[in-house]
Design brief:
This protein is of the alpha+beta class. It contains nine helices and 20 strands. The strands form six sheets. It has a five-stranded antiparallel β-sheet, with no helix packed on it. Strands 4, 5, 8, 9 and 11 form a five-stranded antiparallel β-sheet that branches. The protein has a three-stranded antiparallel β-sheet with strand order 2-15-14, with no helix packed on it. β14 and β15 form a beta hairpin. 43% of the residues lie in helices and 22% in strands.
C-alpha cells in the first residue's frame, strides 16, 4: 500500500495511516470553522476599510471648502504674458491695474582690462572692496597670486559683502578677471582699490595691473510704472506690495508693440468651483460605497458584506440629514446646499446643477463661503460628525480594533487546537498500538492451539 507507513507488528495493518485518517477527521471540521471565521472577519475589515477610505476622501474634499483661507484666496491674471508674473494674497483688493516695465534690475559687473598668462603670478598685495556702504579687504600672497588664486581669495574672503569673481580664458593661454555683485540694484554697485608690492613674475606688471577695469554691466534698479501715474523703483526684480497684497516679478521690458500689461485681481472662483465639484463627487463615492456594501440582490440572493449593518445605515442617514439642513449663520440667498444646485437623488447620492453653481459663485462668492467655512458651516458640522466615526475613538475605529482582536483570538485558538491535535494523535497512536499488541497476542495463542491440535494422534487410522 502506497500510504503504508508503519505496519502493525501483530496485525500487519497500516497503523499510521489509520492514525492519520482519524486525526484528519478530528482536525478538518475545526480547521474549516477557523477558516470561515477568519474569512468573515477579513471581509468585514475590508468592507470597513473601503468605507473609511471613501470617508477620508470626503473629509479632504470638504476641508478644502472649510479652511478659513478657502474663500479668501485671490487670483491674479495678466492680459499679456512674458513681461510680469503676479501672485496675490488675501489682503489684495479686487481690481485692475495697468503695468509698464521700464527697466529691469541688473547686477554690477566689471571686467579687468589687463589680460595675463594663466599661470603668471602677479605678486603680493591687497584689495579693498565696498558694496552698499560695507567694506572688506582681501590679502594676496605672492605664491598664491595667479588670477585663479585671486578669484578664489575674493570669493572666500572673510566678511565678503557681496562680490563674486571668476576668470575668463581666451583659449590662447591668456586670462582676465571678472567681478560682479551678488545682488542686483544700484545700491549694490562695486567699488574697489588694489595695491601691489611689485614682487610678481613681472615686476613691471604686478598686482596693480588689476586696478583698471571696464564696466561690463552697470548696476541698475528695476523701474515699474503703475496706472501711468506711480513709478516704483526696486533693487530687485521682485516687487512686493507696490499694490497691496500683490507680489510682482518683472521679466521683460514692455515695448512699442505691447506698451503695458493689465493685471486683474479677483477672487479665486475657479478653484472654489472645482472644490465644490470635488465635494459632490467625494460624497457620491461615500454613498456608492455604502450602498454597495449594504446591498441585497433578491434574484441571486446575494448580500453585501455589511447588509443589515446598523453602523453603515446610521452613517448614511446622518450625512444625508446634515446636508439637507439649513445652516445657521448662512445668509440668503445661500442658506443650504440646495441653493447651490446640489440636490438629493433616490439612491442617496447627490447631483449638481453646474450652471446654478457658477451663477451663485460669481454673484454671491462670500455668502457661499459662509455656508461652508463659518463656525456652524457645512464643513465644520461634517467634520465633527465624521470624527465620531473615523476619529481615534470613532465607531469604525473601534470596529477595526474589535475585528483585529477577534483575529488574534482565532489565531490563539488555532495554536491551542494544534497542541490538542498533537496530544490527540499521540493518544490515538497508543490505542492502535495497543490494539496491535492484543491482536499479536491473540494470533500467538491461536497459533499455539492450532499447533496443539496438529500434535494430537490420528485415532481414525488405528481403527482401520
Amino acid at each position: 500500500m502506497a500510504d503504508l507507513k508503519l505496519p502493525g507488528v501483530g496485525s500487519g495493518f497500516p497503523i499510521q495511516s489509520f492514525v492519520d485518517a482519524t486525526v484528519a477527521g478530528e482536525r478538518a471540521p475545526k480547521e474549516k470553522m477557523f477558516a470561515t471565521r477568519v474569512t468573515n472577519i477579513n471581509v468585514q475589515l475590508s468592507a470597513y476599510g473601503s468605507m473609511k477610505s471613501a470617508l477620508s476622501e470626503f473629509q479632504s474634499a470638504f476641508k478644502k471648502l472649510g479652511d478659513e483661507e478657502a474663500f479668501q484666496k485671490r487670483s491674479a491674471s495678466l492680459s499679456e504674458s512674458g513681461f510680469v508674473t503676479a501672485s496675490a494674497d488675501k489682503t489684495a483688493v479686487a481690481g485692475s491695474y495697468k503695468l509698464e516695465v521700464k527697466t529691469l534690475a541688473e547686477a554690477h559687473k566689471l571686467g579687468v582690462d589687463q589680460s595675463v598668462e594663466s599661470k603668471q603670478k602677479l605678486g603680493s598685495g591687497s584689495f579693498e572692496f565696498t558694496v552698499d556702504g560695507k567694506s572688506f579687504g582681501v590679502a594676496i600672497a605672492k605664491d598664491k597670486s595667479t588670477l585663479v588664486d585671486i578669484a578664489e581669495a575674493i570669493n572666500n574672503a572673510e566678511g565678503n559683502t557681496g562680490v563674486r569673481a571668476t576668470v575668463i580664458n581666451d583659449g590662447k593661454g591668456n586670462s582676465s578677471l571678472v567681478m560682479f555683485a551678488e545682488k542686483t540694484g544700484e545700491q549694490n554697485a562695486i567699488s574697489y582699490t588694489v595695491s601691489g608690492n611689485n614682487d610678481g613674475d613681472d615686476a613691471a606688471l604686478g598686482l596693480g595691473a588689476l586696478a583698471g577695469f571696464t564696466e561690463i554691466q552697470a548696476a541698475q534698479d528695476a523701474t515699474l510704472v503703475i496706472d501711468n501715474t506711480t513709478t516704483i523703483t526696486s533693487s530687485t526684480n521682485e516687487v512686493k506690495n507696490a499694490i497691496q497684497g500683490v507680489t510682482l516679478n518683472l521679466k521683460k521690458l514692455n515695448d512699442d508693440e505691447k506698451p503695458s500689461t493689465t493685471l486683474t485681481i479677483g477672487y479665486d472662483k475657479a478653484t472654489v468651483e472645482k472644490n465644490l465639484k470635488d465635494f459632490v463627487a467625494a460624497f457620491n463615492k461615500v454613498m456608492g460605497t455604502v450602498n454597495q456594501l449594504t446591498s441585497y440582490n433578491p434574484e441571486t440572493e446575494r448580500a453585501g458584506p455589511l447588509n443589515g449593518d446598523g453602523t453603515a445605515r446610521n452613517l448614511s442617514s446622518q450625512i444625508r440629514r446634515m446636508l439637507s439642513e439649513p445652516v445657521a449663520g448662512a445668509v440668503s440667498p445661500i442658506k443650504s446646499l440646495t441653493d447651490l444646485g446640489i440636490t438629493s437623488k433616490k439612491d442617496g447620492t447627490i447631483e449638481l446643477d453646474e450652471k446654478l453653481l457658477k451663477k451663485q459663485v460669481d454673484e454671491n462668492f462670500e455668502k457661499v463661503g459662509l455656508l461652508f467655512s463659518s463656525e456652524q458651516g457645512v464643513a465644520k458640522k461634517l467634520d465633527g460628525m465624521l470624527e465620531s466615526f473615523v476619529g481615534k475613538n470613532g465607531i469604525l475605529t473601534k470596529k477595526d480594533s474589535s475585528l483585529n482582536d477577534q483575529l488574534k483570538k482565532v489565531d490563539k485558538e488555532r495554536q491551542n487546537f494544534a497542541l490538542y491535535i498533537e496530544k490527540y494523535e499521540e493518544r490515538i497512536y497508543k490505542q492502535f498500538t495497543g490494539m496491535d499488541i492484543m491482536v499479536a497476542q491473540l494470533n500467538q495463542q491461536l497459533t499455539s492451539v492450532i499447533s496443539a491440535f496438529e500434535s494430537m494422534p490420528d485415532f481414525s487410522k488405528s481403527k482401520k
